[in-house]
Amino acid sequence: MSSVADRAYEPVIGLEIHVQLSTRTKMFCGCALSFGEEPNTRTCPVCLGHPGTLPVVNAEAVHYGLMIGLALDCELAPRSIFHRKNYFYPDLPKGYQVSQYDIPLAAGGRLGDVRIHRVHLEEDAAKLVHSGASGRIHGAEGSVVDFNRGGTPLVEIVSEPDIRSASEAAEWLRLLRATLRRIGVSDVNMEEGSLRCDANVSIRPAGEATLGTKAELKNMNSFRFIERGIEAEIARQEAIVRAGESVVQETLHFDPASGALTPLRSKEEAHDYRYFPEPDLVPVAPTEAMVGRAREALPELPAARAARFERELGLSSDTARLLSFRGELGDYYEEALGAARADGGADPTALASWVTVELVPRLPDGDPSASRVRPDALARLVSMVGAKRVSGSAAKEVLTAMAEDGGDPEAIVAERGLAMTDSADLGAVVDQALAANAAAVAQYRAGKEKALGAIVGAVMRETKGRADGGAVRELILERLSQ
Fold this sequence. Notes:
The chain is α+β, with helices and mostly antiparallel strands. The protein has a nine-stranded mixed sheet, with helices on one face. The chain has a three-stranded antiparallel sheet with strand order 4-3-14, with no helix packed on it. It has helices at 59-71, 166-183, 223-242, 288-296, 302-313, 317-325, 327-342, 348-359, 375-386, 392-405, 409-416, 423-436, 438-445, 452-462, 469-480; strands at residues 9-20, 75-76, 83-86, 96-99, 106-111, 114-123, 127-130, 143-146, 153-159, 195-205, 215-220, 250-255, 260-266, 276-277. The protein folds into three domains: 4-296, no CATH class; 302-416, no CATH class; 423-480, Orthogonal Bundle (Arc Repressor Mutant, subunit A), CATH 1.10.10.410. A hairpin with a 2-residue loop joins β5 and β6 (114-123). The protein is built from 15 helices and 14 strands. α7 (327-342) packs across α9. 38% of the residues are buried.
């Protein structure tokens, strides 16, 4: 039997994702949502927990929660209730958080290869701001509380522990983020905290079914940090177990600057929060009309769109995922493809390559809606390349001009003299290049195939990139075989 130190271990990872909903007002009061406002200017007695106030459930937050549940293929609860989750912290003015506990809004779903344990509604806490080494904040030292965020509608999505690597966790979270953005319930901006992720990580001997003791990594706000944090925690637990010690259940903070993991607190159990039903709120019991409205609001989801792009258009998996996970890019591509098909033009695969490889680096802030390159204009340019009316290198020059000033690709090609050299002219240029590069011709005929590159280069320079490289090569080989 192998020793503990020699065993292979596998990670077991589950994610808890908090999503701020893009409603107009907070979860239980009429305060407007905000980001970057002056501290403590978006508050009222309800969200500050003043005595005698009564909360009212935000109907649009429930609608968004139902949309998320349906998008994640969950069972919607016919009746769910809110609870008080009791704990004491400076960012929680009431001394409890209103959340859903044993009867969540939705449960038992799936996204990709990962099962969804539950989807529930709750309110966000306020925001603590620490002065640290930077000195004073708003004239104060130490820590201050901004209650603007307190009461923001949240949906918490909890996965089953189906993830087996840090990279898989980051990739699945990208799919979830794309899905939430696509259905329009949140801007899922991780930098602004609209989407925050906690990871529950444990390890076990490979091949075993029993779960190990988990540690929780809190509030990671980028895909790269999530991946690095999980990798660091897996390594930490493996070192503990191989040393013959036991992993302790606790909550940890990952510092992306140093790569260090530091304990925050021992991990709480449900009984630590002393949950009890919120007496001031009625149960959430979605009607058929509410569920129907949520279902009708769902667009084609990213996973289904990617599968369609692969199945119907023959796109590679990576290209299909890029176009689908970035919904605005997929919309641009489909509009360009529609224009191409109307003109009997561009190949779907070639057009996808031009969108993802050439257009994306030329987009302001990566947003195609802000680009001067119209989808139909890009489709015509790609069609011109396919018809050998302009070379690939010349087309890239045209695309750069279009990205800067807009315009029509045919007009830019004509203005700059970038039209493909016709076959008669190209033959003459090839003959001149062969005559001017006699040494390269001799080397090629002596068996040095790389010498062909010098002749091709001479032709491309002479034509200023207006010749098709493949046609040039074929013509040179034809001449050399005579």
